[in-house]
Amino acid sequence: MSSLLLSLPELFNSYKTWVSKNPQIASDYESTAKWISYFLAGRINNSHLVSELVYCLSNLLVLFNDGVIKQSMQLKSTATVEKIKVWLAIVEYSEVFCELSVQKLWGNTGKWILIVAIQVFKCIARLLLIYKHNETIVENPTIAPLDRGNIAKCQKGGSKHLLGIGQSEFDSVSFTLKRSGRVVRKVESSPPIGLRNWKPVELQAQKLPTDFTEQQNGASISKRQLIAETLYVTKPLIHLASMGVFGKTTWKPWVISLAIDLTSLQLYKSTQQTKTSLSKKQQLQLSKRTMLLLLYLLRSPFYEKHSGDKLDAFLIALSNNLPLAKLICTPLMQYLPFWQSNYFYMWSS
């Protein structure tokens, strides 16, 4: 037993080394774990809880492996901001599993207590990012998965050690010619001949993947943008409060949440500096928020009173008229009410 415990740190370090050297293969294993979670749904006892656990663990594995890859590439970030984002990501990935577990143990009362606690934590953490650490827009998910494909390409191209390094590290693998100012790679830092792409080292440094080089904060955030982001961040708590006041089955919480989302997006669009102050990644996040407005068609009470029956009729028509569609549409119809009640609620943002 003692020898096993002694070998655990070595196994852990070996795993980290393997992930940093094989990011694409690690990504394939992570995807397999997610597909297993879909396969488990409805096939064993407590399948919802088990499948959600597997899905949660697969997302946390992605988060951990991305952290290992960043560490191996010496990507630097503000320690406090990174810690807040990591904890936010952990909560986001595990909140549904925690809600299902608490509901099974302590019923609906325990579930709603946990929901309120989680949303209070998320709201406070996101407001800290906005007001204290000057985040222009809080992304969802808080920490986006790394583009493993770009990492693999850079590794094959011999520019692996140029990813995310600072000026001092860059100077250690290259030098600048005094008269021409040209940047030349040192002989000892050159990759094997078979892996060289013969491109100038400064061009490789300029063409780093945007995941590593793009700054999260744009120009100084305007008052309208600050109000817009504050509205979006506090929307889950406002929605929960409105449910407590007006009830869970009324239209008022639904309308209030939709109005907050529309107001937030309109404030961003009406700000002239939005395009210049936000990065491409952040503008994409705003576009994603606009697309997510379609989820209101699947949220209560709209789903129960309008879209639910129409969606079932559409799935039945597909299963009756398309070959093999029944294999997909029938399980989807069976589990759609569960997914709707656990995923398409207003405090999911």
TrEMBL record:
Signal peptide: none annotated. GO terms for biological process: peroxisome organization. Its main location: membrane. One of its GO terms (cellular component) is peroxisomal membrane. InterPro entries: Pex16. The keyword Lipid metabolism does not apply. The keyword Cell cycle does not apply. It is found in: Peroxisome membrane. Keywords: Peroxisome, Peroxisome biogenesis. It comes from the Eukaryota. It holds the Pfam family Pex16. Belongs to the peroxin-16 family. This is Peroxisomal membrane protein PEX16. The lineage of its organism: Eukaryota, Metazoa, Ecdysozoa, Arthropoda, Hexapoda.
